[in-house]
């Protein structure tokens, strides 16, 4: 009995150079996405004194997230959660409309692999040269090309890991520290790890990451249906494939152009398969060949499976918008937009003052020597503006209550420095003859007012008395 | 050796296993996946050698790196203490009366003192410092031995009526059980009771008033306003350490009270005594 091999080595793939509409589009996406990734930390944004002037900054030490004019505090993390949910729903929407368009165009794994393949082609030549080099002996020529390629890959990896850490601290300062070897070890370790993952994932693992490591290809199947536009081969037009002189031959001349350009190493003519990331390079390759042999383009094309019966019968496929506009995509769009609108609303109603009142309930009240009842409150006031502000604290209640601020010499106003939270202890007292002193609970409301702008915030709480 | 078995429909090799005619296809796993498995095993072995891992009877293997989470905590505490060394030095030299709320040193003293209070003082005075019968409430504005920062610090450092510190606060109220007749005790109780309440028996209280002036006023004052030098409480206010009803007052007059507090200067470091003094002073009743 022959024991089958349960483990297989990776089959090397040598994608051929291709040009065409989709390839051009992908170059642009690569430039834009990599440009955003590498350059964003260097954008400056003046926020005034004592605040970072980096436009996008995740400031872990001070627990702030800066995004241009928006500043997110830890208690507003729901903004980040909301954005992540929107990203998820956006992915659902695009997948149900256009299949694995995220995988094929914008996934970092695809973009960096594309970049690494570009470098590989510049140094080692196109597909045939690379196949020859792969089979060649390890002589000086091969070592020279391989080492050059790995060095360039490594530099891209370092730049990738390097750009990542700039998002977490002031980029120019960190850049200088990194060069002086005076940056924090965490920065070097992070760069080293991301350099290694970029180098290995982009240079050597490539499609293995998509096929074996990524969960998304599995999940995506749940979002796709027969109306989803995806890259497919018009088998009814192409088959039987082969030489064109043969009677009744299909349009496919079996030139293998689609297979040779595929970064995943598959044959799209075998039908939809898990490995296909719908990068559309086979469309470009096939269109090029069809034009040269004088046949209509689109033997390999974006098409929806629901059109297949009509197309086989010789009819035209339905227009794209009829596939894209359907209940499923409309629901995803509606959910996405609803969360986006909610976040925008939350962003605009955000107050620059944040007031939290926590009554001290251990003990619930203190009896003073004259029989007065005192309650203690911890008032936390957050000044979310970049300038110092002075606030006035007061309370409203149906009963007579006296207010006193600890350490303010009888004043009811106190300053809160820019971008800080202050904890102010507040004493509220009911004289023995006041009803609140002998009543279990009395409602009251604390008010703060920005003395400069008149902006107000309030919070309700209760006063505890001593029931005789 | 037989040749490879291939499934006709899919063209994929089979493992040769067949159950009721259903054959198992062999889609081989990538080899690097296997390497990753081996790498994690090697990593695991290295981890077990380097770090604490195997549980033994009373502890665990310690690992060659000598790492422990407890050691890390100790190192962090030492690091924080080193960072705070300057503040501690300042606290030890500072004139506590000049510390103002909002100062860094005041804030440090309050948070350090709060931690000391929770650990050492809360057993009697309560975690919120509200006290209990016989244990004074530190939040109000009534102080037996004085409520300014110096007096609070003195009380904490030397304690009250303890036998270990010669400088402890000291005074002793006599037990009047043997001194007064029963009706005299009733009269004194009624007088003290009347000081802060209006519904007392005026005739009885008037009789008690004379007994009070002769026997009690030396410590408690002619108007029962108390005397902080002797820790004699003000009997005219609304605060009663041992209860203010007639029964509690009678018990106090007959048997006296003898509240004791340890001398914390003998148990805590100087900075902890100072910090907890600032903390108590900051609770709302400080003078």
UniProtKB/TrEMBL annotation, chain A:
Limits of the 4Fe-4S ferredoxin-type domain: 242-271
TM regions (residue ranges): 25-43, 77-94, 150-167, 187-205, 330-348
PROSITE patterns with a match to the protein in the record: 4FE4S_FER_1, 4FE4S_FER_2
GO MF assignments: 4 iron, 4 sulfur cluster binding; metal ion binding
Domain of life: Bacteria
InterPro entries to which the protein is assigned, alphabetical: 4Fe4S_Fe-S-bd, 4Fe4S_Fe_S_CS, Cyt_c_oxidase_cbb3_FixG, Electron_Trans/Redox, FixG_C, Helical_ferredxn, Ig-like_fold
Keywords carried by this UniProt record: 4Fe-4S, Electron transport, Iron, Iron-sulfur, Membrane, Metal-binding, Transmembrane, Transmembrane helix, Transport
GO cellular component: plasma membrane
NCBIfam families the record matches: ccoG_rdxA_fixG
Name the record gives this protein: Cytochrome c oxidase accessory protein FixG
Organism: Yoonia sediminilitoris
Automatic annotation (TrEMBL), chain B:
InterPro entries: CcoP_N, CcoP_N_sf, Cyt_c-like_dom, Cyt_c-like_dom_sf, Cyt_C_IC, Cyt_c_oxidase_cbb3_su3, Cytochrome_c_Oxidase_Subunit
Residues annotated to bind heme c 1: 121, 124-125, 261
Cofactor annotation remark: Binds 2 heme C groups per subunit.
Gene Ontology biological process terms, A to Z: oxidative phosphorylation; proton transmembrane transport
TM region(s), chain numbering: 32-54
Pathway info: Energy metabolism; oxidative phosphorylation
Coiled coil location: none
Cofactor: heme c
Any one of the GO CC terms: plasma membrane
Main location: membrane
GO MF: electron transfer activity; heme binding; iron ion binding; oxidoreductase activity
Keyword annotations: Cell inner membrane, Cell membrane, Electron transport, Heme, Hydrogen ion transport, Ion transport, Iron, Membrane, Metal-binding, Oxidoreductase, Repeat, Respiratory chain, Transmembrane, Transmembrane helix, Transport
Domain Cytochrome c stretches: 108-196, 203-284
Pfam families (alphabetical): Cytochrome_CBB3, FixP_N
UniProt: heme c 2 binding residues: 173, 216, 219-220
SUPFAM superfamilies: Cytochrome c
UniProt-annotated location(s): Cell inner membrane
Summary of subunit composition and partner proteins: Component of the cbb3-type cytochrome c oxidase.
Function of the protein: C-type cytochrome. Part of the cbb3-type cytochrome c oxidase complex.
Family from the record: Belongs to the CcoP / FixP family.
Name recorded for this polypeptide: Cbb3-type cytochrome c oxidase subunit
Organism: Yoonia sediminilitoris
């Amino acid at each position: 009995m022959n024991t089958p091999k349960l483990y297989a080595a990776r089959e090397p793939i040598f994608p051929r150079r291709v040009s065409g509409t989709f390839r051009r589009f992908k170059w642009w996406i690569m430039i834009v996405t990599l440009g955003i990734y590498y350059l964003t930390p260097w954008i400056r944004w003046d926020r005034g004194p004592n605040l970072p002037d980096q436009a996008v900054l995740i400031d872990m030490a001070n627990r702030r997230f800066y995004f241009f004019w928006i500043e997110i505090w830890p208690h507003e993390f729901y903004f980040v959660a909301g954005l992540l949910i929107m990203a998820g729903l956006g992915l659902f929407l695009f997948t149900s409309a256009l299949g694995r368009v995220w995988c094929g165009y914008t996934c970092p794994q695809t973009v960096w692999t594309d970049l690494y393949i570009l470098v590989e082609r510049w140094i080692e030549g196109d597909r045939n040269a690379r196949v020859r080099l792969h089979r060649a002996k390890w002589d000086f020529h091969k070592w020279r090309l391989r080492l050059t390629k790995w060095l360039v890959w490594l530099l891209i990896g370092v730049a990738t890991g390097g750009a990542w850490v700039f998002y977490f601290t002031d980029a120019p300062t960190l850049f200088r520290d990194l060069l002086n070897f005076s940056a924090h070890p965490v920065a070097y370790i992070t760069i080293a790890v991301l350099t290694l993952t970029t180098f290995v994932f982009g240079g050597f693992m490539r499609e293995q990451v998509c096929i074996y490591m990524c969960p998304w290809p599995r999940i995506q199947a749940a979002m796709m249906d027969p109306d989803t536009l995806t890259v497919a081969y018009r088998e009814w037009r192409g088959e039987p494939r082969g030489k064109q002189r043969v009677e009744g031959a299909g349009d496919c001349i079996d030139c293998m152009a689609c297979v040779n350009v595929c970064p995943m190493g598959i044959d799209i003519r075998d039908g939809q398969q898990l490995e296909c990331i719908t990068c559309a390079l086979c469309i470009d390759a096939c269109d090029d060949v069809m034009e040269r042999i004088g046949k209509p383009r689109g033997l390999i094309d974006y098409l929806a499976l629901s059109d297949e019966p009509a197309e086989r019968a010789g009819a035209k496929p339905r227009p794209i918008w009829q596939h894209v506009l359907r209940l499923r995509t409309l629901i995803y769009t509606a959910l996405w937009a609803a969360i986006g609108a909610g976040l925008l609303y939350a962003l605009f109603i955000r107050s620059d003052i944040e007031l939290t009142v926590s009554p001290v309930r251990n003990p619930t009240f203190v009896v003073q020597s004259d029989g007065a009842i005192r309650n203690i409150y911890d008032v936390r006031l957050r000044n979310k503006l970049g300038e110092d502000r002075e606030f006035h604290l007061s309370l409203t209640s149906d009963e007579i209550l006296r207010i006193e601020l600890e350490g303010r010499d009888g004043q009811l106003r106190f300053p809160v420095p820019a971008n800080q939270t202050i904890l102010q202890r507040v004493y509220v007292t009911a004289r023995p003859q006041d009803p609140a002193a002998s009543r279990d609970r009395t409602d009251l409301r604390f008010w703060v007012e920005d003395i400069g702008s008149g902006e107000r915030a309030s919070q309700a709480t209760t006063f505890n008395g001593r029931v005789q | 050796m037989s040749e490879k078995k291939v499934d006709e429909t899919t063209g994929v090799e089979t493992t040769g296993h067949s159950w009721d005619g259903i054959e198992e296809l062999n889609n081989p796993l990538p080899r690097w996946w296997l390497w990753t498995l081996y790498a994690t095993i090697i990593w695991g072995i290295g981890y077990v050698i380097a770090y604490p891992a195997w549980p033994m009877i009373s502890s665990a293997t310690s690992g060659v790196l000598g790492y422990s989470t407890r050691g890390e905590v100790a190192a962090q505490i030492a690091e924080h203490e080193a960072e705070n060394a300057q503040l501690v030095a300042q606290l030890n030299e500072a004139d506590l009366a000049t510390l103002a709320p909002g100062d860094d040193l005041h804030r440090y003293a309050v948070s350090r003192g709060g931690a000391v209070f929770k650990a050492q003082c809360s057993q009697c005075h309560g975690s919120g410092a509200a006290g209990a019968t016989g244990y004074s409430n530190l939040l109000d504005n009534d102080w037996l031995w004085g409520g300014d920062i110096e007096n609070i610090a003195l009380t904490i450092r030397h304690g009250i009526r303890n036998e270990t510190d010669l400088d402890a606060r000291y005074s002793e109220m006599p037990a009047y059980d043997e001194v007064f007749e029963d009706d005299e005790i009733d009269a004194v109780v009624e007088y003290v009771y009347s000081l802060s309440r209006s519904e007392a028996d005026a005739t009885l209280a008037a009789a008690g008033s004379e007994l009070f002036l002769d026997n009690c006023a030396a410590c408690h004052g002619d108007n029962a306003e108390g005397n902080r030098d002797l820790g004699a409480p003000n009997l005219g206010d609304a605060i009663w350490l041992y209860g203010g009803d007639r029964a509690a007052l009678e018990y106090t007059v007959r048997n006296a009270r003898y509240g004791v507090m340890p001398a914390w200067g003998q148990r805590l470091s100087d900075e902890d005594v100072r910090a907890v003094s600032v903390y108590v002073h900051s609770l709302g009743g400080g003078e």
